[in-house]
Amino acid sequence: MASEAAPFAKTGGLGDVAAALARYLVRDGHDARLFLPLYGRIDRKGLVPVGFLRDVPVRMGDRTFTFSVWSGALPQGGPTMYFVECAPLFGRQEIYSQQGDEHLRFGMLSRAALESCQRMGFAPHVVHCNDWHTALIPLWLRTIYKWDRLFAETKTVLTLHNLAYQGGFPKSVIGDLSLRGFENLLHQDELRAGRVSFLTSGLLYADALTVVSPTHSREVQTAEYGFGLDGILRARGVTGILNGVDYDEWSPERDRHIAARYSPQDMSGKAACRRALLAEAQLAGDPQGPVFGVVSRLTSQKGLDLVPAALARLLASDDVRLVALGSGDQRVAQSFRDMERQFPGKVRFREGYDEPWAHRIEAGADAFLMPSRFEPCGLNQMYSLRYGTVPIVRNTGGLADSVTIYDPDTGHGTGIVFDSPDASALRWAAETAARLYRDRAVWRSIQLQGMAEDFSWTRQIQEYTALYRRLCERG
Ligand code: ADP
């Protein structure tokens, strides 16, 4: 279960991954069921109420909430989706909210999933939790649900998509989380500091921990990237499994959002997508240099604050363009707006969340910028590879695992990779891209090597099922 699942609810990679993981598990013959809150923004058309899961009471501290479940299908097949309806908690439009009750909202999602399993008589071999929102389940299975033999054989996997979000709350929420009397099982240092954290409890009690790339699995065990959790992660051990790409959604051969379809055999559609993107972004003409693309949440993680200084020289002197889409941190948004003003006709920043635009930037740009300070996996660089849009990435996490630096001596490589999280390193990378772009044969060869990479879920799902199998056999 997860707080996001595309296309119903998505703010970032978690939404893509949770949906794809469940879909490919089903394709691999497993009986996967995916629970998601019925957020106010989700259209109920096509959803069917589950008769025996109506107005089910769940006690959370002094309050009793009731939930009902609606079932629906993921587009393009896959698992039965179960949408948890609880209007006081999920009825609002936003996925994440600022009303001070996030612990109740995501506590409810997890409780509702377990209560639904009980009423369905469904004994999962594995409950796969994603990020802090569902990370209390391993502890609850050892405490308030311990009596139920239905879960006697159930194993738990917690996948950490982003350690920066830990679900920490004041310890006054312990009652709301039905954990009074179990304080000795919580992380004692946190408790002494007056806090409880969903994620830490998952790190302590899940049967297996995974992060979303092999490089990041090593990084999170260091103080630099561990967000204070590296000690627990070293003690418990963590497996890195690279996210897959859902090529049904993200392929230039099939993409329904783009101006023209294309493939490695016939790249003419990419030129049409470039023209269409420049026209839609109201940018000038047919530049000699590359069109750079950005699609991102705007947070300090993504390193986009480095872009203005890194691109200033190129934008001033060369015939390049920048098309950026993103929402979040207002300082970063403002710096992109400032670039628009400073380089009229050369820079377009679209603020907001816009799925079709994300696809059109992937298809229409020549190079894609991901200067992340840390990146557990990152999906856009893998989408970029498939779209022949050369990724420019920092050498960290999943970026390091999916993009190989172009080596002019051997002619091998799929992108431009730089080490330091600073503007001069990114400037080097962007200017290298602009230089390579001028040699069309070299550029085409980098594009084609990237397009030939295969990060499909069909492969990655095997790593998860092997992990599930190991856990279940361990007994
Ligand atoms: P993260 O999960 O840290 O946000 P990822 O690269 O793993 O980063 O995944 C980001 C996903 O969210 C991609 O599918 C990307 O296209 C999408 N995305 C991010 N920002 C936007 C936006 N403003 N509009 C549309 N899609 C976006």
Describe the structure.
- With 475 residues, the chain is α/β, with parallel strands linked by helices.
- It has two domains: 13-244 and 458-474, Glycogen Phosphorylase B (Rossmann fold), CATH 3.40.50.2000; 268-454, Glycogen Phosphorylase B (Rossmann fold, 3-Layer(aba) Sandwich), CATH 3.40.50.
- It is 37% helix and 18% strand.
- The protein contains 17 helices and 17 strands.
- It has helices at residues 13-27, 87-90, 102-120, 137-142, 188-192, 198-205, 214-219, 230-236, 268-280, 307-317, 330-342, 355-364, 380-386, 397-402, 423-438, 440-451, 457-474, and strands spanning 33-37, 48-49, 56-60, 63-73, 80-85, 126-130, 155-160, 168-170, 195-197, 208-211, 239-240, 291-298, 321-328, 347-351, 367-370, 390-394, 416-418.
- The protein has a six-stranded parallel sheet, sandwiched between helices.
- Helix 4 links the parallel strand 6 (126-130) and strand 7 (155-160).
- Helix 9 (268-280) packs across helix 12 and helix 10 packs parallel to helix 15 (423-438).
- The two termini are 22 Å apart.
- The relative contact order is 0.10.
- The mean pLDDT is 96.
- The protein binds adenosine-5'-diphosphate.
- Residues 12-14, 16, 295-297, 325-327, 353-355, 358, 377-380 line the site of adenosine-5'-diphosphate.
- Adenosine-5'-diphosphate (ADP) binds next to helix 1, strand 12, strand 13 and helix 12.
